[in-house]
Amino acid sequence: MNRFSGRWLGSGFAAVWLVLLLFGALKIVRGAPDRIFSIPVEVLKNWSENIVISMDVKITGHSGVHSLQSDCEMHFGGQSDSFRGIPPGLVFEPANLCVQPFFGKTKLVKKDWLTFGETLVGATVKARGVPRIWPEHLIGKESDSNPHHAVEIHPLTGLKRGTLDRDFTSFIFDPEEYEGGLKPESAMRILSKTTVSVVNNAGMAEITFDSGQIGNFAFLHFTIIKDSIEDAPGGHRMNGEIEGTAGKILVRLVSVEGSAVDTAMAKLKTHTGQLFGMDALVLLSLSPEALHKAATASGGASVVVEQPFQLIVYGEEDAQD
User: Fold this and answer.
1) Rg (Cα) of the chain, in Å, rounded?
2) If you placed Cys at 154, which of 85, 88, 93, 244 could pair as Cys (CB 3.0 to 4.6 Å)?
């Protein structure tokens, strides 16, 4: 009886250990980086040299006008022969349509924006804006307005169809009562805990984004280093620091020409002093400059991207006052 019980206990423990090992392996598989995508290296080079880019795109669909607490945007899905990324989908996102009247009008009517969206579906337009690299929608449910994608033109600064050119740059600001969908501490975790690596495979930058969390807008306090502010096609680029619990996080910042905050950035270049603190609404993105640098250094091997983030600055709290 005791010998039988001992055999049973021994086999029972073996079974338990087997289950634990299998569960551990399953956890490893589940915990493996699942945000992997590719962008041509030459495209990254272009995006690293220009804040605002343009491309011909066929619009495949549009969303409704999102609420203020969602992101206050309308999303347009599209495809472009000039972008051969994996996945190939693109999304175009003009800012603040939930608070902005349609062009030439003084009162907001959301139906105006929906009608505008309908006129664009199936059309080929020239889109201008900031290339935002962010692998939030690589898999899962997709639609005509939200295809699987790692690249957005976000914010969208212009849409030209034929001779009609719509300019959205003045829509780039921090709307009242909006502080972003990410709490500052959540944004800080993303900035400090995410690992990004790149492999150059025959001219394609295969990018691995390893993060426990992902998000979009946040209201953050950061310090701008004045001597780093530089003019670039479509706005300004600069270096910044964010104070985290484990020390300073270095980030690249961009502002978009035509926005109020870009005018403020240009003025900083003439001010005395070297460091300027700012509280602003920012959109998290990967840096095309950092990705291109890593891809160039790859030589077919995986390279960890240094300072991989770019923050797209929408506006100071009082920028529109």
Assistant:
1) 23
2) 93
CATH top-level class for 37-171? mainly beta
Locate 66 and state its tokens.
């999102």
Contacts of residue 181, defined as CB under 8 A and 6 or more positions apart, other chains included, come to 69, 70, 71, 215, 216, 217, 218
Q: Is the Cβ–Cβ distance between 93 and 104 less than 8 Å?
A: no
The CA distance from 317 to 24, in Å, is 47
Contact yes or no for 97/113 (Cβ under 8 A): yes
Q: Give the total residue count for the chain.
A: 321
- Residue indicated by tokens 């495979």: 201
Helix (H, G, I), strand (E, B) or coil at 191: helix
Q: Which helix (H) or strand (E) holds 298?
A: helix 288-298
CB burial string 61-81: b at 16+ within 10 A, e below: bbbebeeeeebbbbbbbbebe
Q: What is the pLDDT along the chain (321 residues), one digit of tens a residue?
A: 433 333 333 444 444 333 333 334 333 334 444 799 999 999 999 999 999 999 999 999 999 999 999 999 999 999 999 999 999 999 999 999 999 999 999 999 999 999 999 999 999 999 999 999 999 999 999 999 999 999 999 999 999 999 999 999 999 999 988 989 999 999 999 999 999 999 999 999 999 999 988 999 999 999 999 999 999 999 999 999 998 776 889 999 999 999 999 999 999 988 888 999 999 999 999 999 999 999 999 999 999 999 999 999 999 855 443
Domain boundaries, given as residue ranges, for the chain? 37-171, 184-316
- The CA-CA-CA angle for residues 130, 230, 205, to 5°, reads 45
DSSP lists the bridge partners of residue 225 as 275
Cα 231 → chain centroid: 21
